Give the backbone structure.
Amino acid sequence: MALDRALEPPVLDDQVTKPGDSGRKNPDLARLEAKLGHVFADRSLLETALTHMSAEGSRLGSYQRLEFLGDRVLGLSIADMLFVRYPQAEEGDMSRRLADLVRKETCAEVATAWDLGSFMRLGEGEILGGARKNKAILADACESIIGAVFIDGGYAAARGLVERGFGERLLKPVRPLRDAKTVLQEWAQGRGYPTPTYSERGRSGPDHAPIFRVAARIAGLADAEAEGPSKRLAEQAAAETFLRREGLWSETMGGENG
């Protein structure tokens, strides 16, 4: 028996699936590293970056801390890239480009291109609920991967990752550069109205993927409400709803026809 066991091929840690642990088994992480263009010196960082709270049972064991860090590294990297790529651009233009590139929807698109969903460690309930394609979770995972690469390889490695993932979008923004809140504020001020304000009207969904409902308000006019996966995105959506109602916004003009 001992001889038979000695002849069996070794079982690697990431090939073991424990009972009730279906979300922990990952495909070959080397394949993901090839997609990212970064081989981790500390593979555990990559594993943590792919671990949702539902798989670990605690926030500290999940990707949330790496997501926090990655969000800041992403912002710095994009700002750095914009500063170099557009030497004649004014601060306002770069700010609008930055906002477009770091938004959760863009991060989710990059995560999808990296196929992060198939590598995520998720609880069984989340898997059954389709979390591997959940845009909010994918966006968080994108940022956590950036944070993990920053710790593993430093800023140069993280910036390289961001450039590979976001570089094409930096040259060709997929959304209008003028955001709805800016357009609404300019329109209100140009017509003597007070500056628009935003207030949270409600919140729904689970803790890890909340949906915020926000109202855009301008004194003397009816409020406009909209929802989004963060307060910032809900405010943008509410401003866009307001502008559409007033006939000041279109998909093609990006608010510039008002």
